[in-house]
């Protein structure tokens, strides 16, 4: 269920709590509390469009603001919830018929391509609901999001007005239940708000005073006769109606307009007149690790590898790699990602630094999949057996870690597919098979798949492979270069897998054009790599963070990897340890998902000349690292990374992506942003606010003033508050404008929590 529901837990006069509609269809939700004319019936439409008749007694008072029909049928037609776009069967309306709805509703979100695909959320994510809604004239409206959970429970989210003059409406709910949710936006004539607004102005000005009180009395009396409201609420409204009707020299009728209980009732169960609803939209809520997780990548063959005196190597195994898992868990990571673990081809095997002359002791690239020992459903003999792999999975699970496997749909020239299914590849005019290229890069050891020659055969084989690894216990796949395969293939594959196993997560390793990256996310990929790796200046980072937290957040979950075996940016090459510290802090706090490739914590920053790749790249050779020695020498970022992941777990605000807000500073190199979760939506029941202030220039000491919009996290302008640095443990008193000094060589980043007094 969304948290919190619109209806409050606090009881009214008799102690009877306000309730909301349940999954069994029992309607106790005040969305049906309409103000009608005597004896007339109105249909109230719930989230699925079901009509719920409501009839007021014929001796009840006349409602306010319903100026449309005199006949019951006319009133039902005018007040019935109306879709705002197409006809009920989804076809286009006939020419001349209105589609806008009695109260226009536009710009509904979250939605993806007009509802073509469901929007995304993860369990525990706070989802913003937005719409543009308005009506003619000056009467006020109200807007709600009507939610239906995967189990059929109905609830309501109040949408409040956005920026003045924009007719925008916004509200939030925390979605915890896994599965597909649906929602509609309801816009209605808010009769109470209209009366209240008019009455405040006129009564205080001495204009139409008694008329305003009479209209209010009729409005409250009509609501008190609504049987769907709790009895205690009806009694309370009836008493206020009688009070508004009285005329005494000493009466205090004016105080009713400021009655907080009445305001709460009107907010929770509005007094609705004309109504329209949008077309339904869907949101797919996936497991938490689909949207909030910390990834750590390492090559199992390097963990425990040994070089012998004759220059040959003994590969690491799943058993030796398992010895690395406790250190990964101690740094607070959730997911261990392994590059391909399959047999590696011999033909055109790459040597050190992507050379074409591999020696007999060179292991080759794990992405050159397939040899005489097998293909995508086999394990490299050097790593161990299927039973050894399952033992590795068990060791990880005991430490709270999940193992992600690489899904690389390509083949070495030695892959069994090449002889068994040559139609799965592209044959050139000279009879040779085309190898992979990304000019100027060439991958002679890899044949890309041609998905058009035998699409059904390829689909069946890939589905079999994925389900095989799932049967061994794998629930997360990092997909290599999905942008070089048809998008429709991924929509089909992920749809097939998630239809039976909705907990399986796919991460798209797609560093490519924005349209392709976004399309992959829309069709199903739960996560995707992003441009974060190359966004380094304050201006670049502000633009990037705002884009991922607002523009694409309804469907695209960026995983902010700080480095990969392919990517060692100039920022890391030349920024020293400060650059590594800054990048880790930004990725861990700005993103809900982030990742590290091993070696990052050791400040590995030497690139192959003329490239953004590490020299002596682990893709082509074994790499032995002494993590313990580096830590003992103070040459490791491991402890800081552990601190970051601990902070992420302890602070609900960092578990979200859509709540990131940018603040200002007087220095072009000082980046400031905050994340906030209100008490009502926090899983802890307490509000949580994190402020990050980062010096993004790793070569300098910066002194400046930062400027906070404190209203974004619920603090009145001009109010001071205490902040606690979660890295240094310092405590300061802050306000809207604050002096900071950030030394890139000692303390390049403040990660501040606001302390509750």
Task: Jot down its keywords.
alpha+beta, 25% helix, GH13_cat_dom, Immunoglobulin-like, Glyco_hydro_b, 23% strand, carbohydrate metabolism, EC 2.4.99.16, 9-stranded mixed sheet, disordered N terminus, 8-stranded parallel sheet, Alpha-1,4-glucan:maltose-1-phosphate maltosyltransferase, 757 residues
Write the layout of secondary structure elements.
Layout: E1 41-45, E2 51-55, H1 72-79, E3 105-109, E4 119-122, E5 125-133, E6 141-148, E7 154-161, E8 168-175, E9 179-190, H2 191-205, H3 209-224, H4 231-245, H5 260-268, E10 272-277, E11 281-286, E12 293-297, E13 306-307, E14 313-314, H6 318-321, H7 325-330, E15 335-338, H8 386-398, E16 402-407, E17 410-411, H9 416-420, E18 436-438, E19 441-443, E20 447-448, H10 455-472, E21 476-480, H11 487-500, E22 505-509, H12 514-523, E23 527-528, H13 538-551, E24 559-561, H14 570-590, E25 593-597, H15 627-632, H16 638-650, E26 660-665, E27 670-677, E28 688-695, E29 701-707, E30 721-725, E31 731-734, E32 737-743, E33 749-754
Parallel strand pairs: 4-11, 12-15, 12-25, 15-16, 16-21, 21-22, 22-23, 24-25
Antiparallel strand pairs: 1-2, 3-5, 5-8, 6-7, 6-9, 7-8, 9-10, 9-11, 13-14, 17-20, 18-19, 26-27, 26-29, 27-28, 28-33, 29-32, 30-31, 30-33
Helix pairs in contact: 2-3, 3-4, 10-11, 11-12, 14-16
Plain-language structure description:
The relative contact order is 0.08. Mean pLDDT is 89; it is low at 1-90. Strands 3, 4, 5, 6, 7, 8, 9, 10 and 11 form a 9-stranded mixed β-sheet that branches. Strands 23-22-21-16-15-12-25-24 form an 8-stranded parallel β-sheet. Among the domains are: 105-286, Immunoglobulins (Immunoglobulin-like), CATH 2.60.40; 342-378 and 410-448, no CATH class; 660-755, Sandwich (Immunoglobulin-like). Helix 2 (191-205) runs antiparallel to helix 3 (209-224) and helix 14 packs parallel to helix 16 (638-650). The chain has 16 helices and 33 strands. The protein is globular, with a radius of gyration of 31 Å. Strand 21 (476-480), helix 11 (487-500) and strand 22 (505-509) form a beta-alpha-beta unit. The protein is α+β, with helices and mostly antiparallel strands. Alpha-maltose 1-phosphate binds at residues 350, 410, 445, 481, 619-620. It catalyses: alpha-maltose 1-phosphate + [(1->4)-alpha-D-glucosyl](n) = [(1->4)-alpha-D-glucosyl](n+2) + phosphate.
